[in-house]
Design goal:
The complex is a heterodimer of chains A (362) and B (258). The radius of gyration of chain A is 29 Å and the shape is flat. Chain A contains 13 helices and no strands. Chain A folds into two domains: 112 residues, no CATH class; 238 residues, MetI-like (MetI-like fold, Orthogonal Bundle). By secondary structure, chain B is an alpha/beta fold. In chain B, 35% of the residues lie in helices and 25% in strands. Chain B contains eleven helices and ten strands. In chain B, the strands form two sheets. A six-stranded mixed beta sheet of chain B has the order 6-7-8-3-9-10, sandwiched between helices. A four-stranded antiparallel beta sheet of chain B has the order 2-1-4-5, covered by helices on one side. In chain B, strand 4 and strand 5 form a beta hairpin. The radius of gyration of chain B is 18 Å and the shape is globular. The chains are: A mainly alpha (362), B alpha/beta (258).
């Protein structure tokens, strides 16, 4: 035994005599918070250097300092650090939620003004600057059709691409695909819009449009699918990698061929995550303005046909109405923005529910 | 139903690393053969080369000849899924399919290979679950997920899933290492019953288990880390555990080494 305790430097810290330690009283934290805010308010308004925002910021800093000092004096250093970091993490959460809450509140409060049947039932056709009515029916149709077509193109392509990378791809080719998918993630939407404008609208579509460049919702869908593809591929890839190898081996050991293992065991296991990735991609595509402006051209009238003539979309509608010289257009823009967010939200919830229904209840 | 397995000069590689070297071994039908030996000696690798699961890993390959009733399973024109249907496998950790119910798990092998008729599936499921001594515990909740069972039940579910496709040979890779003693006992009992129909090869670290369940025992070992594993001794279990002919085997089973 004696040899174990000869080395003083490596000896662990002494065991405390008791498990109990002094704690700050429960009311300490709120009292410090109130005091910090009061002091901050006194300083800020006393010196006349700012408003309520500065009071909150300064108060938060004072609160952290006060909490650390008090805890350090009573509870010791470790507990003081713990309290400070907990407070910091909580404030980080509040900071992250604040903009979100603010956006939702702004959208709802300003978008409510034109939330009427007229908005959802009419287009902007023949609506002048002095007309208070007019709506986004054409834009909603455009968004639904363009995003729908883009999803139909992207999901099979992206999921199959991810399956290739994870399950089949070996060596340089798979590596190259992964690399270029990563590069695609960084392409600005305006560039994909220009790409489709140059390639599809100006070169391909004249062949079946009497030599005229054909702006269309479908061209917008193409541009959106270029934007969605990397998100779908990467998220699906990550989800497929999370499926444990023993599951695949379990299926192989039953004599199940590889393609069937992927289809019936691997994909269902990864499905909820894949759906989340697809919904992220759809949400991003639904909010894009630039490519739609470039290749679908916008337009005030209802056009159900995505393959011919101009189409608008909600994002483009927001952009155009926000810049319109009419006192009625800002309200339309806000309501369209609210509609867009609600649409994406509803789609996301629906997709999550569908993906969950596929799983078994306990 | 059961078939004889013959390994001749079998070596297996992970890329450039040789994991086992020149294994020669014959497994008789309707017997239980235990593979024992220290960690890293290639028991599992050998087991996985018997149903061509070894080659699933990138860079892995097998040399030599492995035959099942004189048919080389590594022949060029052999369908690997047919081999695996004939030689089933139970893994170390229970791996029921998480998206499937208990019933779907048991019939997964049939269903994924194209059997659709409900009556056949139900009949097979009940038979397999009864053989795996699991029927009474799950018959009222066949629609519930397989992942909700206890570890021991999950492993018996995996055994039921394996025998539902009616293989000739069942390979078990440390099937009890993640289980408590009672579940282990249930699975050992099960092996006794399954022996009537199947040839069983089991890898185990538990020497009492090898002594309890097996008819023949193969002892694998390595010289030192990085060397390929070799078959040191292969004999009747009773002989191996009472009077082994190689000193190294004796050292291992008496606990002086490994």
């Amino acid at each position: 035994m004696s040899s174990l305790v000869t080395s003083h430097r490596t000896r662990p810290p002494a065991q405390p005599a008791t498990l109990r330690a002094k704690r700050l009283p429960r009311y300490a934290a709120p009292v410090i918070a109130v005091a910090a805010l009061l002091v901050a308010a006194g300083v800020v308004y006393g010196l006349g250097i700012g408003g309520p925002v500065l009071v909150v910021v300064l108060g938060a800093l004072l609160y952290l300092a006060g909490l650390f000092t008090a805890a350090n004096a009573v509870e010791g250093r470790r507990a003081a650090r713990n309290r400070t970091w907990s407070a910091l993490i909580h404030s980080a959460f509040v900071l992250a939620v604040l903009p979100l809450a603010s956006v939702v509140w702004t959208l709802v409060s300003k978008g409510a003004e034109r939330l009427d049947g007229d908005f959802f039932g009419t287009s902007m056709n023949n609506i002048g600057a002095r007309d208070a009515n007019g709506g986004a029916y054409h834009a909603i149709i455009g968004t639904l059709e363009q995003v729908g077509i883009a999803t139909l193109i992207t999901v099979p392509l992206g999921v199959l691409c991810a399956i290739y990378i994870v399950e089949y791809g070996r060596g340089r080719f798979a590596f190259a695909i992964r690399f270029f998918v990563d590069v695609m993630t960084g392409i600005p939407s305006i560039v994909t819009g220009l790409f489709v404008l140059a390639f599809w609208v100006l070169i391909v579509s004249p062949w079946f449009n009497d030599g005229q460049p054909g702006f269309s919702g479908f061209a917008a869908a193409l541009a959106l699918s270029v934007l969605m593809l990397p998100t779908v591929v990467r998220s699906t890839e990550e989800m497929l990698r999370l499926v444990p190898a023993p599951l695949r081996e379990g299926a192989y050991a039953l004599g199940v061929p590889k393609w069937k293992t992927i289809l019936r065991v691997v994909l269902p296991t990864a499905l909820p995550g894949i759906v989340t990735g697809i919904m992220l991609a759809i949400a991003r595509a639904a909010g894009e303005t630039a490519p739609v402006l470039l290749v679908a051209g916008g337009g005030a009238a209802i056009n159900f046909n995505p393959f011919e003539n101009n189409q608008s979309s909600l994002a483009l509608f927001v952009y155009q109405q926000a810049g319109e010289a009419s006192k009625y257009s800002p309200a339309r823009a806000w309501t369209a923005a609210l509609t867009l967010v609600a649409l994406v939200l509803v789609l996301t919830i629906a997709a999550k529910l569908l993906a969950r229904r596929n799983r078994l209840g306990r | 139903m059961a078939k004889r397995i013959e390994a001749t000069n079998v070596s297996a590689y992970y890329g450039a690393f040789k994991a086992i070297e020149n294994i020669n071994l014959t497994v008789e039908p309707k017997t239980v053969t235990a593979l024992i030996g220290p960690s890293g000696c290639g028991k599992s690798t050998f087991l996985r080369s018997i149903n061509r699961m070894h080659e699933v890993l990138p860079g892995a390959r097998v040399e030599g000849s492995l035959t099942i009733d004189n048919q080389d399973i590594y022949d060029r024109d052999v369908d690997v899924t047919a081999v695996r249907r004939m030689i089933g496998m139970v893994f170390q950790r229970p791996n029921p399919f998480p998206t499937m119910s208990i019933f779907e798990n048991v019939v997964a092998g049939l269903r994924l290979n194209g059997v659709r008729k409900k009556s056949i599936l139900e009949e097979t499921a009940e038979k397999a679950l009864r053989s795996a001594n699991l029927w009474d515990e799950v018959k009222d909740r066949l629609g519930k997920p397989g992942a909700g069972l206890s570890g021991g039940q999950q492993q018996r579910l995996c055994i039921a899933r394996t025998i539902a496709v009616e293989p000739q040979v069942v390979l078990m890779d440390e099937p009890c290492s993640a289980l408590d003693p009672i579940s282990t006992l249930a699975i050992e009992d099960l092996m006794f019953q399954l022996k009537d129909k199947f040839t069983i090869i089991i890898v185990t670290h538990n020497m009492q288990q090898a002594a309890r369940v097996s008819d023949r025992t193969a002892f694998f070992s390595i010289e030192k880390t990085g060397d390929p594993g070799r078959l040191i001794e292969y004999d009747n279990t009773q002989k191996i555990f009472s009077n082994p002919s190689v000193k190294k085997t004796e050292d291992y089973i008496t606990g002086r080494f490994g």
